[in-house]
Structures are given as structure tokens and as C-alpha cells.
Design a protein that fits this description.
5-stranded mixed β-sheet, membrane, Transcription Regulator spoIIAA, 318 residues, two-stranded antiparallel sheet, STAS_dom_sf
Amino acid sequence: MGTKLDINHELKTVGWSNVVSGLLGGYTGSYIFGQTIFTCRSKTNSRVVGVCVILAEIAIVVVPVSVMSYVPRFFLAATLFFVALDLMLEWLVLAYRKMCIREWAVVWLSFLAINLVSLDLGMLIGIGVAALNFMLSYIRVPIVDDDTDTSAELELLEGTVQTGKHAGVAHFEFCGYLFFGSAVQILETVQKGVYVRKSNGTKQSSSTVNYLDLQLSHESSFLPNRDVPVQCLDGTPAPDDASPTQYVVMDFTRVAGMDATAARGAFLILKKYCNNHAIPVVFVNVRPDIRALLLKNSIANTTDFFPTAESAIASYVS
């Protein structure tokens, strides 16, 4: 919907709803998955949808007759069939455009295992296949770098960052293999290092979560002192001497690989958050396979890639 999801608020909503339902003798539940899909597909960004659902359910309870007995069964069957067909088309057929062949094969094997064996055992088989795919991807990561100029280039880049000549640029350097376990840490770290102007309607998060340190290193933003009220991208308070970020450089020089979950679960979300604040995001020294993954998931355009961080910063300055 173009806005940041407050996961803690959503969990509290579901929790308190189940408490009230239990006290009144009702069933436990969560969000209506089918209704969520309909709302998303129709691009309806309004609370009116939820109000209509609430009023309809209250009417069903209050009316003395069984309303569901008057609803044609083929209508309910067609609705379920539409939801199933839409999900299968998106994640079994069109998903190959967003992930590599091995990850697409994992999705298909998990689907077949669940339908041919059972739900619980099929999910375990899918987890095992996913773990095997991760190990195959990880062992292909090169452990020896034959590029003799890399260290010199990194030292020169670190010196440029520390000079602070180019105001408003936040530089992040990632390393290792970025996978689904890295997505949360990437989100946390980058959002803490990007500063945006504080708006009156922005809610600040009062709780922080400590996650295990994963493969991510952060180059501090070199921002000048300006008399502008700012906050971190996640809504938490920014340092006293921080000023708004105008340009984000994501350096993949030391990244050996990345899966589709990390791409969509971290970088796609970060790109949308930065777009909401009109902050350009560029990518530096990206491997061909990672570049293809970023392009497939509409995370970057062909003009967002640069060979070095210096050239990316130079394009911003110019």
C-alpha cells in the first residue's frame, strides 16, 4: 500500500481480538487471507473495506436466519478457486521471473511434497530441500579473491568516506553471502543509518529488537550538521548531529551471492522506503547473478549500477 507496516501493532490487534472473541465464546482467528488478496489486487487503500466486513459479520450474527444457507455454494467455491488459482499462478508459474532456477525448483518440490504426502511432512521435506539448496549455494562462494586491486580500492574508498566532502551520502558495504537469515539485520542496520526529515504524522518506535550480528558492515554516513529535525528511516530518534540523507550507496564489492528472499525481504523494502522520501539508491560493483536478481524483482534499474563507490558518489556530486 506504499506505507510501512507496523508489525507490533498488527500482532497486538490480532492478540486482543482473540482475547475478546474468547471471552465472548467465539473462535480464535487471524486476518482474512482471501480478503487481503482482494483488497491488494483492487488497490483499495482505505479503512472502509474493514468497516464493511465488520458490519457484514455483525449483520450475520444479529439476523435470526442463517444467511449462509441463502448464499449459493458455487459462489463460495468459485471464490476459493479464484484465490487458489491466483496464488498458484503467482508463486508456481510467474515466480521464475523473480528467483533463480534452483529456488524455483524448491518451491515446486515443496508444493508437490505437501500435496502428495501430507501437510506436516511435506513442509518438513520443503525445509530440507531449502536447506540443501542453501548449502549448495554457499559452498559455491569463492574463498580466494584474486583481485589484487580490491584492498587498495577499499582503502581509498574508506578515506573518501571519512573526509566528509560529499554531504548527504550514506554508504553501506555488505559482505559474504546474503540469504534469508540476513534480511532482518540488513533492514535494521540500513534504516538506522539513513536519516529523513521528521514529519508531524510520523510515529516513533519505542521498542528496539536485538538481532544476532550477521554478515553486514556499515560505513557511517558523512553528513554535515544542519538545523533540520530528522529521524532514522525506521522512525527511531537520530543522532543529534545527523542531517537528512540525500543519496544511498549500497556496495556489493565483498558480496559473494544473494538469494531471492534477501532481495525481496530486505532490498525491495528498503528501496520503497527510500522512494517514499525521494532518496535515490544505487548499487556498486554487483555480480552479474545478483544484478539479474535485482532487476527481476524491480529493485533497481539498469542506470542504478556503478562499477565503484567513487563513480557512484561522483555522479551524485555532479
